[in-house]
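Milestone 3.1: sequence recovery, worked example.
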């Protein structure tokens, strides 16, 4: 296993943690309507914010681990970048400018 592959997995998992934490803060501040993923917002209505986000992030992380174990690291890197670009950065911007 190369160091670069482990780094990609680490970035992916950190992005998942950040997305989960920022989503939790955003939903508490703006309501469930702020969540753009219909499946996650449905889970939030059914299970509550914390359990739904933990389940969603565990599932996402498991998918990332499957990509890692299958040595599909370019796809994993692309998904990590998409998570950062389409989830983490928008949440940071929204939360920063709403203060």
């Amino acid at each position: 296993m190369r160091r670069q592959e482990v780094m990609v997995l680490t970035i992916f998992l950190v992005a998942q943690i950040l997305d989960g934490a920022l989503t939790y803060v955003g939903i508490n501040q703006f309501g469930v309507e702020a969540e753009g993923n219909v499946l996650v917002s449905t889970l939030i209505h059914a299970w509550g914010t914390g359990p739904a986000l933990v389940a969603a992030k565990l599932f996402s992380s498991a998918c990332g681990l499957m990509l890692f174990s299958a040595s599909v690291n370019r796809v994993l890197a692309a998904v990590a970048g998409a998570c950062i670009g389409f989830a983490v950065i928008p949440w940071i911007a929204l939360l920063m400018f709403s203060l």
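The longest helix spans residues 3-30. Residues 3-97 form one domain.
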